[in-house]
Amino acid sequence: xxxxxxxxxxxxxxxxxxxxxxxxxxxxxxxxxxxxxxxxxxxxxxxxxxxxxxxxxxxxxxxxxxxxxxxxxxxxxxxxxxxxxxxxxxxxxxxxxxxxxxxxxxxxxxxxxxxxxxxxxxxxxxxxxxxxxxxxxxxxxxxxxxxxxxxxxxxxxxxxxxxxxxxxxxxxxxxxxxxxxxxxxxxxxxxxxxxxxxxxxxxxxxxxxxxxxxxxxxxxxxxxxxxxxxxxxxxxxxxxxxxxxxxxxxxxxxxxxxxxxxxxxxxxxxxxxxxxxxxxxxxxxxxxxxxxxxxxxxxxxxxxxxxxxxxxxxxxxxxxxxxxxxxxxxxxxxxxxxxxxxxxxxxxxxxxxxxxxxxxxxxxxxxxxxxxxxxxxxxxxxxx
Length: 384
Ligand SMILES: *Cc1c(COP(=O)(O)O)cnc(C)c1O
Hints:
With 384 residues, the protein is of the alpha/beta class. It has helices at 13-17, 21-34, 41-53, 65-75, 93-100, 119-125, 145-154, 207-217, 238-249, 251-272, 303-312, 342-350, 362-383, and strands at residues 58-62, 83-87, 104-108, 130-133, 160-162, 170-171, 174-175, 182-186, 200-204, 278-279, 287-288, 294-298, 351-354.
């Protein structure tokens, strides 16, 4: 039954990378020969390419998506006594950037249909101490960023978009990372533009902000050995930039493949199981979804059973995220963690992420869906 040929990996980065091997080697050899391992021409070129793709004036490379978020907090002068509004249903780095600078996260709940932060909850959480809002564009779909930016503008609060999972996504045709004061991207290997190691980028349309972000990313040093502010050392290196430029060229094609795969899952799952016990992912009609993840809601407390069943049949899945950030051990003695976020808790107990990458085949998707169908057929039989 668990015939090896029918196994489906959660993610297989080698499938995307191996056809590009020669292009990578050529690009990397150029870096080796140039000796410019930091601040090489590929870094500046990738910054230009990402800026133009994301319709912003400047992009600033840094060492990771996590550093991008931290640098945004530092450049906005956020510190002790300041509040930053953020969802708890996200990757830890959306929040640790706030506590790292000594500020207080104010957690808000999500919309159950998209898993993205609820704009109305943001509005109610604003106080005179609010110094920024960090909406997260989760799984490849933008949050309702137009509403969020309107609310923020009424209160004169900067918005920092966590677009780590959503390069190339858009809302009302305007790209992720171009709405707020600052946008943060990640090139972690599982992201839609994934490198061969860590990397990140910041986007902004404010030239003074671009300058501050670069200042903080370079130890606050200007000129050399004179430090204006206490920054960090966070750079995108030339090797990563060279790899990323090869992949960047194919990003629109990779996004299209993800969209086709998502549409196929939705069609096949709708036929096989329906949208009752299993909640299929919902697309906001105003969003251009780039499907970093295909996320199901598994109801009736059966998520972990389904996951174990699929794992036994060779189908890889993941849970993004099993615990909300406000329930993480490191924050348990903090007053800001004592909040009630029912939609966030429900999402953590129901969510299941299926294999999703551009090179995933139709046959593999049919295998995944067939195994899910069998789980429900067996469940119905044992209940009868
Ligand atoms: C991946 C991710 C980050 C952090 O990016 P790294 O490059 O891994 O540091 C931040 N926020 C979200 C939502 C992410 O998915």
